[in-house]
Design brief:
By secondary structure, the protein is of the alpha+beta class. Helix content is 38%, strand content 10%. The protein has 2 domains: 55 residues, no CATH class; 56 residues, no CATH class.
């Protein structure tokens, strides 16, 4: 796992990949001190998908202050899930995360 910023170059990502890194860690506990933000997650995830990283669908759960307090993800053999099924599971998981977040009093969020 690596913590990266959007300014990371493709060459740096390749170097991390060659070194055995296979995923991104997003530290979002305290936005004032965090090296990443919620807005960085999707663009960075798309960039590393070309390397085969972050293949598991995941989403975030927010508390009443709008802070990320948990993540939800699915784990299954990729060979058993085609793109259409994966896309459907992502929608269902995001809907579930939105329900849990709402129950926790979260304001609108980009789950």
């Amino acid at each position: 796992m690596a913590v990266i910023r959007p300014t990371v170059t493709d060459a740096e990502l390749k170097m991390l990949d060659d070194g055995g890194i296979r995923g991104i860690r997003f530290s979002l506990t305290d936005p004032r001190n965090s090296p990443t933000s919620i807005e960085m997650i999707e663009p960075l995830s798309k960039r590393v998908n070309t390397l085969g990283w972050n293949r598991l669908p995941s989403t975030m759960v927010f508390d009443h202050m709008g802070h990320v307090i948990a993540g939800m993800s699915l784990s299954f053999p990729a060979s058993r899930c085609d793109d259409a099924t994966r896309a459907r599971y992502i929608v269902l998981m995001r809907e579930a995360a939105a329900v849990v977040s709402a129950q926790l009093g979260a304001p609108d969020h980009p789950a």
